[in-house]
Amino acid sequence: MPFASHCKLGVNVDHIATLRQARRESEPDPVAAAQVCKASGADMIVCHLRKDRRHIQDQDLLRLCELKGETHLELSSDPEMVAAALRAKPASVCLVPETPREVTTLGGLNLLDAKDKAVENAVKKLKKAGIEVSLFVDPDPVSVRRAKALGADTVELCTTAYAAAREKKKAAAELETLALAGYLAHEMELGLHAGHALDYHNARAVARLPHMACLNIGFAIVSRSVFVGLKTAVTEMKQLIS
Q1: CA 25, CA 161: separation in Å to the nearest integer?
Q2: Which pLDDT tens digit goes with each residue over 76-90?
Q3: Residues designated catalytic
Q4: What does R_g of the chain's alpha carbons equal in angstroms?
Q5: CATH superfamily of 8-98+108-241
Q6: 109 near 150, Cβ under 8 Å?
Q7: Are the C-beta atoms of residues 135 and 150 closer than 8 Å to each other?
Q8: Which residues pair with 217 in a beta bridge?
């Protein structure tokens, strides 16, 4: 099996903002954290602007987009959120599903329901503004093909099922599912990213899948940084997946 020669690392700084918002203080600053991440080997800074603003705030997003290098924004296809992206002008946007009171994103976009039109409209507006667009999808052929039809530049495969697998046989099967979805994305000339629930124990295998260009990881890195520091946590993950 051919391996990707270099898999980039996108570091999500949402949970730096989560800690700050717990006290509604100015520290820790996710923008300062982003600078540490970039200096430590992160290829891209990732953040999710949620409708409830539970962590990243609009001003954070604007400041992150002013940093040198690529800022990758996750958000729903809600018109209000798309408008926020158009104001901030990140290098790229990943459209993700979002439901009230969810603890974290629960899976890929359902591109075949009534919200499909909202996703299509969001893709058009973002691409018209010169922003690269990816769609967060489950690793199945229907979702990958639909992402292409909707005009996405990239698909980000949801790795939740793989990360949740506790038996080696189940993990291997989920990894194969990711690989097959990746092959299809490549055949359709879509960029290939992956993320969600990846950590220091399971990320390497995903990074080595054929055509994998980037892994987006946040919670595991921020959690490890509590014990070893953010610089070391990012450096370790970068070395692990490269």
Answers
A1: 36
A2: 999 999 999 999 999
A3: 48, 74, 196
A4: 17
A5: Aldolase class I (3.20.20.70)
A6: no
A7: yes
A8: 11
